[in-house]
Amino acid sequence: MPNYLQRKTGHDYTAPSAYLITVVTHDRQALLGSLVGGSASGAAIEATILGKQVIAAFYDIEKKVKEKTGCDVQVVQYQLMPDHFHGILYVRDELPKEWHLGRIISGWKGACSRAYTRDMNGSELTLLQGDVLKADVVQKSVLTLFEKGYNDRPLVRKGQLQGWIQYLRDNPRRLWLKRHQPDMLRKVYEFEAGAKGRRFTAVGNTFFVTYPEIAQVRCHRNLSEEEIQREVAHYLGLARNGVILVSPYISPAEKAVYEACYKEKLRMIRIVSRALDGKFVYPTGRDFDGCAAGFLLVLAPYVAGDEHTAAKRISRSQCLDMNDIAAELVRPLGEV
């Protein structure tokens, strides 16, 4: 399995940049907050006292870095979750070599662990009040709140920051859906499917691959608008008659088919180029919602760190490979 705590190779962690930081509580304990709200749209996280201290310590990074280095580091956004924390930091100035991002995050995590220790010791002392002998043995060492290390993603492309912010804001809704529709959003590793028995990371309705009629959506990239609409009508006809469509949905016509079928919540299998084998990685945007609603299965044939997921853009050879993978899932059509 890849190491998701590994830093980005070749990146200068003292250089000005924005970072999406994720830390996870030790043993994934739900210490930071609780999910509230009666629907996905009304979902929110209600912070515990410790969660509020974690948030305060995160904002305190700005003051502490300024005092120690004279450099500006800005908190752009955060999202507290029951068992983990996401935050976006914007390093505005070149940091001293000894004050790289890792040291900043380590200092913040240490402050959070000290707050956790104070809370735990305070709770024990309350329970043991009046019993001097037992109070003397209350743990004095600092407890560890978060797991060792952290996950970071440096900002590398235009529009990425706004995507991060939206992702963080959407986390409570996604958690609500995971808890209330667990079967559709359960991640299946090493999921075997297709004529060649390939293995995928799968999210969604995995029974789709066993359906007797599966058709591949494959359209030429250079079609006119009229030709695109004909392709959409053709594949909509199949899907409305119960055929499951499979494709990476890359070309303009394929994307139009995806949009039309998504609007009607027709069943689809989508092959994606990004890796889904990470702890914090799930299908994004409407793919996530489609999986939750039960009409979409997302299959990721690649894993984090391989040549496909490391590339910044999808290459022609990868497009062909993904289309070949889709073709392996096709099952003969009857009369529709």
Task: Describe this protein's structure.
By secondary structure, this protein is an alpha/beta fold. The protein folds into two domains: 17-179, Alpha-Beta Plaits (2-Layer Sandwich); 187-328, 3-Layer(aba) Sandwich (Rossmann fold), CATH 3.40.50. Helices cover 38% and strands 20% of the residues. It has nine helices and twelve strands. The protein has helices at residues 49-69, 101-127, 132-135, 160-180, 225-240, 252-263, 285-293, 307-310, 316-328; strands at residues 17-24, 33-36, 44-47, 73-80, 84-91, 151-154, 187-193, 198-204, 214-216, 244-247, 268-271, 296-300. The strands form three sheets. Strands 7-8-12-11-10-9 form a six-stranded mixed beta sheet, sandwiched between helices. Strands 4-5-1-6 form a four-stranded antiparallel beta sheet, sandwiched between helices. Helix 1 (49-69) runs antiparallel to helix 2. The longest helix is centred in the middle third of the chain and has 27 residues, at 101-127.
Run of helices and strands? EEEHEEHHEHEEEHEHEHEHH
Relative strand content? 15-25%
Query: Count of helical segments?
Result: 9
Instruction: Give the class from helix and strand content and strand pairing.
Output: alpha/beta
Mean pLDDT, all residues: 86
User: For the report, how would you describe the main beta sheet?
Assistant: 6 strands, mixed
Give the beta-strand count.
12
Instruction: State the domain count.
Output: 2
Spatial shape: elongated
Distance between the termini: 43 Å
Q: Any idea what the CATH superfamily of the largest domain is called?
A: Transposase IS200-like
CATH top-level class of the largest domain = Alpha Beta
**Radius of gyration of CA atoms, rounded to a whole number:** 24 Å
Instruction: Enumerate the spans where pLDDT stays under 50 for 5 or more consecutive residues.
Output: 124-139
The amount of helix comes to: 25-40%
